[in-house]
Amino acid sequence: MLLKDREIPIEILILEAILRRLPSNHLKRSKIEEDLRKRYAGYFGEESIDYHLSFLEDNKYMFLHNLRLPWKEGTYFQIDTLILSPFYFILLEVKNMIGTLFFDEPAKQLIRTKTDGTQECFPYPTTQVNRHVLQLNSWLRLHKFPNIPIISYVVLSSTSTMIKTNSNDPNFHEKVTHAMNLPSKIHLLVKQYPNKILTLKKQKKIADQLILEHSPSKPAILNWYDIKREELLKGLYCEDCTKLSVKRKSGSWKCTNCNSVSKVAHIRGLLDYFLLIDHTITNRQFNSFFTIGSRSVTTKLLQKLNLPSSGSYKDKKYHLSLAGLESWISAD
Q1: Residue 120 DSSP SS3
Q2: Number of CB atoms found within 10 A of residue 321's CB
Q3: Less Cβ around it within 10 Å: N or C end of the chain?
Q4: Burial letters for 225-242: b for 16+ Cβ neighbours within 10 Å, e otherwise?
Q5: Which long-range contacts link 209-214 to residues 24+ away (Cβ below 8 Å)?
């Protein structure tokens, strides 16, 4: 039973929004494009796990993807995939890496050798997943949920990835595995953990609490690349010709470059604003960022969206959310 779907990471949405509004000759553009490709590769790797999980009996498990849960002192921990059953929980740390992976156990580091011979060093995945197990156990105790075994796997999404290690742990290859091996490993857990700990009601209560406390991040990616807001191009984006050339004409949005018409160009613009600038917007900011030039038009457009708002007439702020804006776009 899928309770929380796998969403496109907000980092990808932000990078795409930056590229929509960055001049074609900007010095940081190629770096951002490369980082976007890497993040999409990671996302597709996580998505590919779902195919293998589909071989599990759906009525026995609850699946939650991409959880970000509160930890200590305003920090959070993230779980790629969490699988709930009445007997045990399964925590997956997904890696989408091509080449040869050397798990250096004594040094607690992961070394990837690419096909061209170049090497990269990464944090040790088993250390990461073990920490997430500790954090999830702590979260369960905090909410006074029953103690339940949590089994963790480091999952490599690509079958072509070669695994090497100097680990002396005889269970290493039980913990680090290719995605295609997951169903058979999980089937064996039924015999290893025969004691039912949770009722279906309690299992669902835990799942509901996890979803309730899921806190999506909104990283300040412009700062990562040292890009100022003033460097972003203003205007409304055309989905057909990819130009910032949409203007208001006769009560609708029309692209001055390709003549395509849109009903939601301003909502797509607001989504960019939310991803790149702020979670609130005023009438004046709307006019300035999208170069509309008419306060009455922007007032009508914002009011029609029924956005939550605060402040007086002159300083009224409209509150934006990713889910709210995406729902308006998908409804078109």
Answers
A1: strand
A2: 12
A3: C
A4: bebeeeebeebbbbeeee
A5: 209/143, 209/145, 210/4, 210/64, 210/67, 210/69, 210/82, 211/3, 211/4, 211/64, 213/69, 213/70, 214/4, 214/67, 214/68, 214/69
DSSP state of 176: E
Two tokens, residue 166:
């100097």
pLDDT 10s per residue in the chain (332 long)?
777 788 888 999 999 999 999 999 999 999 999 999 999 988 888 888 888 998 888 788 999 999 999 998 889 999 999 999 999 999 999 998 889 999 999 999 999 998 889 999 999 999 999 999 999 999 999 999 999 999 999 999 988 899 999 999 889 999 999 999 999 999 999 899 999 999 999 999 999 999 999 998 888 999 999 999 999 999 999 989 989 999 988 778 999 999 999 888 899 999 999 999 999 999 889 988 988 877 888 888 888 888 899 987 778 899 998 888 888 777 65
Under 8 Å CB-to-CB from 34, ≥6 apart: which residues? Answer: none
In the chain, the amino acid numbered 209 is Q
With beta carbons less than 8 A apart as the criterion, state whether 66 and 6 touch. yes
- Both structure tokens of 124: 């040790």
State the amino acid at position 322 in one-letter form: L
- How far apart, in whole angstroms, are the C-alpha atoms of residue 155 and residue 179? 6
- pLDDT confidence of residue 331: 61
* Helix/strand/coil for 143: coil
Residue from 123, 84, 86 nearest 107 by CA = 123
Instruction: Return the axis-axis angle of helices 265-276 and 283-290, rounded to nearest 10°.
Output: 100
DSSP H helices in 167-257? 172-175, 182-192, 200-213, 221-224
Cα 144 from Cα 151, distance rounded (Å): 20
Strands 76-84, 89-95: pairing kind:
antiparallel
Contacts of 232 (CB under 8 A, 6+ apart): 18, 21, 22, 276
